[in-house]
Amino acid sequence: MAEQILRVEHLEKSYQKKHVLHDINFHVDKGEVVTLLGPSGSGKSTLIRCLNGLEEYQKGTITFEGKEIVPTEKNWQQIRQKIGMVFQSYDLFPNLTVMDNILLGPTKVQKQDKFAAKKEALDLLKRVGLQDYANVYPRQLSGGQKQRVAIVRALALHPDFMLFDEVTASLDPEMVRGILNIIQDLADVDHMTMIVVTHEMNFAQQIADKVIFLEDGHILEQTPSKQFFSAPQTKRAQEFLDSMDF
Amino acid sequence: MDHSGISVLFEGTNFQRLLGGLWVTVRIAAVALIIGLILGIMLGVLRTFKNRPLRVILRLYLEFFRIVPTVVLLFLFYYILPRQMNFNLPGDQLATLVFALWVAAEMSDIVRGALISVPQHQKESGKAIGLNRYQLYRYVLIPQAISLEIPATINLATRVIKTTSLLMLISVMDVINIGQQIIEANNHSHPTGVFWVYGLIFLFYFLIDYPLSWWAKRLEKKRLERANG
């Protein structure tokens, strides 16, 4: 049996009165790619933001690499170095160059050797086709370029696990393919374990080992990808798939 | 007229004395600004923390220095503190202290405002790469806040320089006080001297403050251009 890298049990989350996640249970094996699908407002983003401590949860446990996470800010700071996250709105730091954006985590948080970290950052930039942009500021980049840098910035910390939160949702259509190829490459070549929230159904189908289908904060279905896209178990999932163009 | 008012400026050491007074003014304003800005940045950062008692205390500090007129603050420190608390400082040092505390209060509000207007996403993406609170402020939030707040800070500096004209009330030998002495000493021989002396003082203040306010406007314009580009 494959090694479980992440296990979520009985997770509950509410904002004041609104209950947004109900009894969430799932696990992710090492090297597995999970896509999180569901209508807007179903709690997908909230759920993956819980997994690196950007959202607090009220009940339940998250176990990462065999250890149950005690959700204090200090512990999350450690865990976030192992769980990289890329957001919809890229969020590069506008006051730093591309290179300094990438190096901030490795050199300041992880105290890696600056020279080696820089060399590695350049290799990563090369991999996403941006080796000539190390010294420019984020405002000089297009949306797609910014998102690639954001991915590199997360990878530079050597994470064991990546979270992608609708990373192509605010990009021009012609930029989307490039970003998805990078993620695909991470899965195929690096065997990176990841959870991908996306509305790109073709991509989800292509990359996912397992699909978790979420609605109104409940997991309605978690099935191997092939089965989900050919014969989903629930009516809601079928309706959801029918409503998507792909 | 053989006693034209303008000549009062150049009689004896008058001009050097006025320059000396200007130097006192500039020195007090500059030292107060440096101390006040550093202290104000620290207080501004503390005011963004969630700790409630801390926020209340710093808010009271800000409001005290904002509401009480500067001249009252100067009198308070100059006349009352020495008597009540046996706290004695020469006038110019005391003025520096009062101005520094005032700058720190105003600055804390400017910094706090700039820090909370840095988008929430910036904070989250900083956290997502494992930055702790100190690193988040040091590398992400404060640098971005500073570029937002520089124009307001320069405007504060021009206000501080102007307000140093109150220093004569606590007997500091600033440019106004010396000008006043020169006018009084020459009132008889140069009745129109007052216009020339105050005219020169006006020019001094203008030459210091105008470039600052021009600079602030330019930076703000550039920032807006950048934000839109």
Automatic annotation (TrEMBL), chain A:
The record's listing under Pfam families reads: ABC_tran
Q: Which SUPFAM superfamilies match?
A: P-loop containing nucleoside triphosphate hydrolases
Q: What is an example of a GO molecular function annotated in this UniProt entry?
A: ATP binding
Cite the ABC transporter domain residue spans from the record.
6-241
Is Endoplasmic reticulum there in the keyword field? no
Note whether ATP-binding occurs among the keywords. yes
Q: What is this protein called?
A: Phosphonate-transporting ATPase
Q: Taxonomic lineage per UniProt? A: Bacteria, Bacillati, Bacillota, Bacilli, Lactobacillales
User: Could you say which protein family the record assigns here?
Assistant: Belongs to the ABC transporter superfamily.
Q: Which UniProt keywords apply?
A: ATP-binding, Nucleotide-binding, Transport
**Parts of the chain that traverse the membrane:** none
Gene3D superfamilies documented for this protein: P-loop containing nucleotide triphosphate hydrolases
UniProtKB/TrEMBL annotation, chain B:
Does the entry feature the keyword Membrane, yes or no?
A: yes
The transmembrane residues are 20-46, 58-81, 93-115, 195-216
The family database entries (SUPFAM superfamilies) matched by this protein are listed as:
MetI-like
The answer, when asked if Chloroplast is one of the entry's keywords, is no
Q: How does it sit in the membrane?
A: Multi-pass membrane protein
Where does the UniProt annotation locate this protein? Cell membrane
Write down the CDD domains for this protein, in alphabetical order. TM_PBP2
Domain of life, source organism: Bacteria
Q: Report keywords, A-Z.
A: Cell membrane, Membrane, Transmembrane, Transmembrane helix, Transport
Q: Where is each ABC transmembrane type-1 domain found? A: 22-213
GO MF annotation list: transmembrane transporter activity
Q: Which GO terms describe its biological process?
A: amino acid transport
Q: Which GO terms describe its cellular component?
A: ATP-binding cassette (ABC) transporter complex
Family membership? Belongs to the binding-protein-dependent transport system permease family.
Q: What is this protein called?
A: Polar amino acid ABC transporter inner membrane subunit
